[in-house]
Design goal:
Blueprint: E1 14-16, E2 22-29, E3 33-36, E4 39-42, E5 46-50, E6 53-56, H1 58-73, H2 75-80, H3 145-151
Parallel strand pairs: 1-6
Antiparallel strand pairs: 1-2, 2-3, 3-4, 5-6
């Protein structure tokens, strides 16, 4: 008999014991076993697969039937022994929010330097020569013949006048500075998102009585 593999099985298939009794449907398929009503059966205990039905070997089926008979007649004793037949655990799952941080560029600061012109006035004292003309009377004296001839010749006497002139010079000096610095600050933010949570409800399939019936 060839061993059954997981590719031949799927959840929801009916499982029957070797005596033909229905044990339930496949709830979970693992690597080498299936789970039916909380009970695990290895692939080696499967005799054959026909359509939507899985048939176990007679040895496994007889053991299961015997266990169920004992559980029905002495359920209290089985519970006292600490072995719960048909136990099914359904996990409840919930999502939790987590926050991670990463470095991003939030902006930038640009520092521009421009040139402006302004008018300035600087006081300065300048010296200059002034010409003054003064007439003085002197005692008469005779001129020599050569002096007399030259004295009556027209002539222009030029007297240079000197003074200080202001010359504007410019030089660049440092009058101040702008310091650009960065520091870290901490801000508190609130982040929110939608999370999911599973809720398990049990429906035992029993009919409910109608009120007023």
């Amino acid at each position: 008999m060839a061993q059954v593999n997981a590719s031949q099985l799927r959840e929801g298939m009916e499982v029957h014991s070797g005596e033909g009794q229905s044990l339930g449907t496949i709830e979970r398929i693992d690597r080498d076993s299936i789970t039916v009503r909380g009970q695990q059966y290895e692939f080696t205990s499967i005799e054959r697969v026909e359509g939507n039905r899985v048939h176990l070997t007679r040895q496994v089926g007889a053991s299961v039937d015997s266990d169920r008979t004992r559980a029905g007649s002495g359920g209290a004793g089985a519970a006292a022994g600490g072995h719960a037949q048909g136990e099914l655990r359904v996990p409840e799952v919930a999502e939790r929010l987590g926050v991670e941080k990463r470095q991003v560029e939030t902006g930038e600061v640009s520092v521009h330097k421009t040139v402006r012109e302004e008018q300035q006035t600087v006081p300065v004292e300048l010296e200059r020569e002034e010409v003054s003309v003064e007439r003085r009377e002197v005692g008469e004296r005779r001129l020599a013949p050569g002096e007399a001839a030259a004295a009556f010749e027209e002539d222009t006497v030029r007297v240079p006048v000197r003074g200080e002139e202001a010359v504007v010079t410019k030089e660049a000096v440092v009058t101040g500075e702008v310091v650009v610095d960065k520091e870290r600050t901490t801000e508190r933010h609130e982040l929110g998102d939608t999370v999911r949570r599973t809720h398990v409800e049990v429906d035992d399939g029993q009919p409910r009585g109608r009120s007023g019936a």
